[in-house]
Design goal:
It is a single chain. With 288 residues, this protein is of the alpha/beta class. The chain folds into 2 domains: 1-37; 48-284, Alpha/Beta hydrolase fold, catalytic domain (Rossmann fold), CATH 3.40.50.1820. Helix content is 40%, strand content 19%. It is built from 9 helices and 8 strands. An 8-stranded mixed beta sheet has the order 3-2-4-1-5-6-7-8, with helices on both faces. α3 (114-132) packs across α4.
Amino acid sequence: MPYIQRRNAILAMICLFLMLSLSTVWFSYRTDKSNAAAAPPAQKPVPTVFVHGYKGTARSFNGMLGRLEKSGVAEKAMVIRVTKDGMIVVNGEISNRARHPMIQVIFSDNRASFRQTASWLEKTMHILYTKYNVKEANLVGHSMGGLICTKYIEDTSGRRQYPVIQKLVTIGSPYEGVLIRVFKQNPNNTGDAARDLLPGSVAFKALYANKNRFSPHIQVLAIAGVVEKPALGDSLVSLDSALGGRFIVPKKQYTSKIVYGKNAQHSSLHENKRVDRIVTDFLWDAKK
């Protein structure tokens, strides 16, 4: 083959190779771009909001949240403080890669009425929805905190711009009021909430009157404590009172667990490791 013909043949082969290579690169680029466009956005993890009870502080849930985080089952993502004048102060953020993020809500006025406290929780949840893109959430409430969560669910029924609640856990929440004799022995039990917590109060009547507004989609777990006798329950809330939510929540959505022994005392329930396990199994199917 003459030199010129051989050179032209080589050049033609080189050109063909380059064209094939460029075509492969272009096809790969288009495919990757198409797949990227078609891929759904990462789903934001569902946070769990923890609400303390009457006279509660950061210490109310610090222990439980710390234990759950240490065990690796969940991560403490935010602390939200509500000032006495209703200002919301948020510390932290929710990462898209967080494992079961936990949000701790702390009310500076921890003796405010059911109505006022539920209003503050409502404002908090609205901010989580609008500013932090929290579209779904779980709620955990100790003592009065469980009642506040219940009232919040009733008050926001059918309203937009609030996270859809998936699960609610109440821990020692007195749905039929506290044990009056025990409660009144403490001179520090004062404030609007102290009146609301008494059996038969106007606040309880309103909570039961609005039970038809409780969402038919929320799964509820009530945890009750019994130190010695069911009538005395956890020493502040009788067993019947702690399980009183069954008269508000539809039967098919409601389950309960009872914890026994000295560590089932009212203020010890959120420090009880058995309660930790019950909560994690219910919220996140940790036993699976």
